[in-house]
Amino acid sequence: MISRRDFLQATVAASAIWGGSGVGAWAQIAARQQLTQDQLLEFDTFGNVTLIHVTDIHGQLKPIWFREPEINLGVGEVRGLPPHVTGQDFLKLYNIEPGSPEAYALSYNDFDALARTYGKMGGLDRVATVIKAIRAARPDALLLDGGDTWHGSYTVLKTGAQDMVDAMNLLETDAMTSHWEFTLGIDRVTEIVDNLPFPFLGANIFDAEWDEPAYEPYKMFERGGVQVAVIGQAFPYLPIANPRWMFPNLSFGVREERMAEVVQEVRDAGADVVVVLSHNGFDVDRKLASRVPGIDVILTGHTHDALPEPVQVGNTMLIASGSNGKFVSRVDLDVRDGEMKGIRHKLIPIFSDVIAPDAEMTALIDGHRAPYESEMREVIGRTGSTLYRRGNFNGTWDDLICNALIEEREADIALSPGFRWGPSLISDTDITREDIYNATSMSYPNAYRSEMTGEQLKVILEDVADNLFNPDPYYQQGGDMVRVGGMGYRIDVTKPQGERLSEMTVLKTGEAVDPSKTYVVAGWASVNEGTEGPPIWDVVENWVRGQGTVNIDPNESVDVIGG
Amino acid sequence: MTYTRRETLVLGASSIAMLAVAPAAFAATTDEEIAAFTGGAAAGEGGIEIGAPEIAENGNVVPVEVTAPGAEEIMLLATGNPSPTVCKVKFGPAAGSQRVSTRIRLAKTQDVLAMARMGDGSFVQATRTVKVTIGGCGG
Questions:
Q1: pTM for this structure?
Q2: Contact assignment for A253 to B54 by CB distance below 8 Å
Q3: Do B139 and A237 touch (CB under 8 A)?
Q4: What structural domains and CATH numbers belong to chain A?
Q5: Contact A59/A164 with Cβ under 8 angstroms?
Q6: Which of A240, A461, A475 is the best substitution to test chain B (most B C-beta atoms within 10 A)?
Q7: How remote is the C-alpha of A464 from its chain's centroid?
Q8: How far apart are CA A408 and CA A416, in angstroms?
Q9: I need a surface site. Which of A58, A120, A241, A370 has the fewest CB within 10 A?
Q10: Is the pLDDT assigned to residue B14 strictly greater than 70?
Q11: Which of B6, B53, B138 sits opposite A467 (nearest CB)?
């Protein structure tokens, strides 16, 4: 498909030959010319095994805008290491020209302006085109889905994720792992998994009562004359970060010893190459790779990082493929004599105006959307600001949600979870009902209103901060800091739990938060069973409708130290 | 005799039940328990492993497994609980393995401590931090 826009050359590609040039420099071609589908797909087929990785699609069947984070701090040993590099530093690290398509795809700088130039990204019908093109070059390429697929949109909510299940089946997925999938409730998960034409892998998912494996840990594939073991690793902290009562008989956890056992098991069973399809989050996978020998490739997920080059830890290559359908990773491996001899990788950006949609997938998507199209398209209001979610401490989408909670629920303080999913909107565009659901769709949406003391608020914020900034990655849950409306605070990310937060201040009065005083707090997505209140999308819709045009003031209420 | 894993689990659980009836007022501190167990001898590292989740999924029932090959007795303490003693398990000479698996309640984030008295009368110990968190904000 020929671009309708004036694109620059984009080479979101890395050609890393093990033992050759090492992990090579990225985006060397600076020549300005029209961006084409052929360029995006250009790849010198290598070795004998191809992996295609998609992850954290979060129900996004259609092209979206998605602004990458400005603040994504690493703590301890990973401070300043990818993916904890953002903005100009990121562009410099990977030798990317500011203002280029790859800069738009991978950083937050000038997001709003570049979004108008380069358009939306993703769309599963474009992803289908890319996957078909890869399979044309390598017919037995493995398509591996890192999970967070059956969640995150209006149609997922209305169809019980049947839209995503059908779409991933049409793509002929070879295996997947999971996280938000389980928030459909165990009965629906079981119903889907029982009919899934590919394995639903999770080496770390156990029966909670007897501590026995609950799902297939791995699948062995014969590809290119070699045995490829794909081990699944679900999100370790599902029963903590999401409502345990929705899947009460399952236990998760990092289970490093279990991973070591399964790696040994697949090696003993004849695996020539070992791939972990993971929903651990990048830093957890980095630590896992440093401690469990025998893993060749980890296809990372959960933390929504997009990296144009693999990160090498010992003999393990970590691949980060972004989120929301924005990227597809192609990984070619040369596997001989029972070991991985070389790797070539490309992070393919899905520019939706450049890559032609696959007609069969477009028809499937439109079929699922048709019954809901008019409801989804209804314009609720407009935004004067860019609305985005990613960032360790705040995002304008969450500022909007907190403002809505405070005003609609008559609260002093609002709390909104530090989710990393949810596409962005650029300024001076309509806010449709679908946009609101894209930022809020879930199975436990009730907007609660309760009373908390200042001390309780401090305990909650310290707890969440430790889930994000604990220097040991195995104690990190991979979300961002809970977003706070109506209250400011100072945080020193280098301190231990209980000492990170200070200067908690009620914004409307400027008074310090009193530990013994009671405040009215509104929030949503509580993991507690029986939480009461209207669904968050109704709260947001009512507020946006009342506003007409929404403008979000710059958020200066969090003072960060040690970043 | 050889205990199966499940029987050991039940054994461990019943040990907790027994100790749980002791009034809190008589609860010994961690240091007192260690001193009573070792008689004041220093404990070495290695030869004993604790299996436990990094973060508890449910602080009321945290699975903990201690393995100490060659141990004659294993003591398990939850150092941050009001009453730290969890259980002491003795192994006879015919025991097939020296492993205890149980589920314990943890009041808050804390170190779980395991000590073993070995066949030669020496002691080894290990600790593992288990976090008890409010949760609910993972993304």
A1: 0.91
A2: yes
A3: no
A4: 4-366 (3.60.21.10), 378-561 (3.90.780.10)
A5: yes
A6: A240
A7: 18
A8: 14
A9: A370
A10: no
A11: B138
